Amino acid sequence: MSNIDLIKETIATVDTSFSKKIDFVAALGTIKETIAADVLKYSPIDQRITHFIVFKSATGVREISFYCDNLDFSLQEIEANFGDAKIGYNFRENYSQFTFALKSEFIDSLFFIRDNKYDISDRKKITETTPRGDSKKSSDLTFNAFCLKFREQKIT
């Protein structure tokens, strides 16, 4: 079983719950603590996930970040399953975001975040650059968390 299966299963759980009008967050876990007004930490049902954070808005859930301390998701494997990443860099916060559009009625995108700036000239040549200008080359990246961004939900 691949680590990517966890991402696929999580997406399927959300899509199925949404379509059946079931509370999809409750299908993923139970609330552990409130971090801020619209930010909640959950204990997952799936033991491969360490915990997850739910970011809410007035219209519903905006994003969920899933942390998996004992799993790594390879960029090559992610792209093999979800297509090429759209990569954006946030200069102010010094992180790169790797975003994948999903064909889901409820989930807008899957994304991964990693500190520093990443340039990918060809899918096997990755250059990481720190704010001090130090750079390092690699052939792949791994992530130990994944995030889902949701389409705006209609309140009924």
Structure summarized in a few sentences:
With 156 residues, the chain is an alpha+beta fold. The protein has 3 helices and 13 strands. It has helices at residues 4-19, 24-28, 75-82, and strands at 29-36, 39-44, 51-57, 60-67, 73-74, 86-90, 95-101, 107-115, 117-122, 125-129, 135-138, 142-143, 145-150.
Question: Mind explaining what this structure looks like?
Answer:
The protein has 156 residues and is an alpha+beta fold. The chain has three helices and 13 strands, in the order ααβββββαββββββββ. It has helices at residues 4-19, 24-28, 75-82, and strands spanning 29-36, 39-44, 51-57, 60-67, 73-74, 86-90, 95-101, 107-115, 117-122, 125-129, 135-138, 142-143, 145-150. A hairpin with a 2-residue loop joins β3 and β4. The longest helix has 16 residues, at 4-19. It is globular, with a radius of gyration of 16 Å. The termini are far apart. The mean pLDDT is 92.
